[in-house]
Specification:
The protein has 5 helices and no strands. By secondary structure, the protein is mostly helical.
């Protein structure tokens, strides 16, 4: 039980930090995201949409309770990261270029699996 909480909080803090940093950079269209999104063939306005949703998702995941909205936040992170990984591979980029997205995808899954019962939809 204690081990699960430690795993949850380590992965959740890592996930939140990564998503918040990326969300802010995407919302403000800084930090090289314009180049990444352009190489993937997506319009730049997609950055703002993804960035705002990531920031909101981090807030929801860190707040206590709200289990239904947490499920949506985790699902959003899962879809965003699987979409990013697939996009990198679809345009012929290497595994190395997809590593940040893969890491955040794995951390999303681990955080979701190890979340405490009070943060689950059905405890």
């Amino acid at each position: 039980m204690k081990r699960d909480k430690i795993i949850y909080w380590i992965t959740t803090v890592f996930l939140s930090t990564g998503m918040l940093a990326g969300g802010i950079q995407q919302t403000l269209q800084i930090g090289g995201y314009n180049e990444i999104v352009t190489k993937l063939g997506y319009p730049l306005y997609l950055l703002t949409i993804l960035g705002v949703w990531k920031i909101l998702g981090v807030i929801i995941i860190l707040l206590p309770k709200l289990p239904l909205i947490k499920e949506w936040a985790y699902a959003g992170f899962f879809f965003a990261m699987t979409g990013a990984v697939i996009s990198h591979f679809a345009v012929g980029q290497s595994f190395v270029e997809a590593i940040p997205s893969i890491v955040l995808l794995v951390v999303t899954i681990i955080s979701w699996i190890f979340r405490p019962s009070e943060r689950k939809l059905i405890p």
